[in-house]
């Protein structure tokens, strides 16, 4: 698989299933093999992406995993279109923190012409002020005309996740189909937008379904594959689910995606903090992209903590010269904590 991956060739379905079925004893070998492919195409660079949630909640779709879905009781922030000044401040904060790509996201089935024009103005402003920063847009379903308009405004990419396999899609959503999503991906390609589309693992899918959707995304020539791990929001149908996800399982999923998409951007996305936990540095050996800061309706890791993780793991953030520079040789700006508990004190031990 590694030899084929280095040549830009995808793993077969059988090989991908073997990766998912591998044991914990084999995990480091699997990560090392996938890591050779990752470093061949992307070196030790990590792309930092930053999400800006333009419109939150009140979505008419019934996707079971989503905290913004129709009928959701999740206690998230809900608001219509954010004030342009707040959007500008958020964009500047993300870029200042090191983001190479800004992702403008709005909930809903799909945008009206007026909403497309609204977002296009934001895209133009970002590109005017930061021409080397990529802009990705995520507004739901779009047709050829709207996709072309967003491309003409200067957007580089458009995100529209597959989320799960065609055979499993009816289990998580009834208001649209898997084919509806694939049709939007094709419209994006026709418009010249870079297609960004990935999955949410942990929704009761089988190994075969995970491999099927990732393979189908390869057939649709997506350039970026976000790999999300289910955040089981209270107040949604999948509340309390995702117990099938362990840190080792998540790493195997990321490795499988890398083997099928050897030369694509593979992003360890939402849920990595909850499910990969202390093994997140190993995810960087396979994935070459993460989100910086918070997600749409959930909190992420502190940006400084992720930058430190990148540095300590021997990676560097991809981006502009004006971005945060990490010096691996710089000392940790922290005094050694002196023990004042446990034996020799009246305080309990640290256990």
What would the principal axes of the Cα set say about the shape?
globular
Percentage of residues in strands: 5-15%
Biggest sheet architecture:
10 strands, parallel
Number of domains: 1
- Mean pLDDT across all residues, rounded? 93
Low-confidence stretches: 320-326
Q: State the secondary-structure class.
A: alpha/beta
How many strands in all?
Answer: 10
So how many helices? Answer: 13
Task: Describe what you observe in this structure.
The structure is a single chain. This protein is of the alpha/beta class. The protein has one domain (2-317): Aldolase class I (TIM Barrel). It is 38% helix and 13% strand. It contains 13 helices and ten strands. The chain has helices spanning 2-6, 13-20, 27-42, 84-97, 113-129, 144-153, 169-172, 178-191, 207-219, 247-260, 272-275, 280-283, 303-312, and strands at residues 45-55, 101-106, 134-138, 157-159, 194-196, 199-201, 224-229, 265-268, 289-291, 316-317. Strands 1, 2, 3, 4, 5, 6, 7, 8, 9 and 10 form a ten-stranded parallel β-sheet that branches. Helix 10 (247-260) links the parallel strand 7 and strand 8. It is globular, with a radius of gyration of 21 Å.
């Amino acid at each position: 698989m590694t030899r084929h991956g280095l040549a830009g060739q995808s793993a077969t379905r059988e090989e991908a299933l073997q990766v998912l079925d591998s044991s914990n004893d084999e995990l480091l070998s699997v990560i090392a093999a996938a890591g050779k492919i990752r470093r061949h195409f992307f070196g030790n660079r990590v792309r930092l992406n930053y999400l800006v949630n333009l419109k939150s909640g009140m979505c008419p779709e019934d996707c079971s995993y989503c905290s913004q879905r129709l009928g959701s009781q999740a206690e998230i922030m809900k608001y219509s279109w954010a004030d342009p000044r707040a959007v500008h401040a958020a964009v500047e904060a993300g870029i200042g923190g090191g983001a190479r790509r800004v992702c403008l996201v709005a909930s809903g089935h799909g945008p009206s012409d007026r909403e497309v024009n609204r977002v296009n103005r934001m895209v133009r402003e970002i590109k005017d002020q930061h021409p080397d920063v990529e802009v990705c847009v995520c507004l739901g379903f779009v047709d050829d005309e709207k996709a072309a308009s967003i491309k003409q405004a200067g957007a580089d990419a458009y995100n529209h996740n597959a989320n799960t396999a065609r055979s499993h899609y009816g289990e998580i959503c009834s208001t649209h189909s898997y084919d509806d999503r694939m049709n939007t991906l094709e419209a994006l390609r026709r418009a010249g937008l870079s297609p960004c589309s990935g999955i949410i693992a942990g929704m009761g899918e089988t190994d075969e379904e995970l491999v099927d959707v990732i393979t189908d995304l390869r057939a649709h020539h997506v350039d970026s594959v976000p790999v999300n791990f289910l955040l089981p929001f209270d107040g949604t149908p999948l509340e309390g689910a995702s117990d099938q996800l362990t840190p080792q399982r998540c790493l195997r999923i990321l490795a499988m995606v890398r083997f099928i998409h050897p030369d694509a951007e593979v992003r360890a996305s939402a849920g990595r903090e909850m499910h990969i936990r202390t093994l997140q540095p190993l995810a960087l050996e396979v994935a070459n992209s993460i989100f910086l800061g918070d997600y749409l309706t959930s909190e992420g890791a502190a940006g400084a903590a992720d930058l430190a993780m990148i540095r300590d793991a021997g990676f560097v953030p991809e981006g502009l010269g004006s971005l945060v520079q990490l010096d691996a040789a710089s000392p940790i700006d922290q005094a050694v904590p002196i023990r004042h508990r446990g034996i020799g004190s009246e305080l309990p031990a640290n256990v």
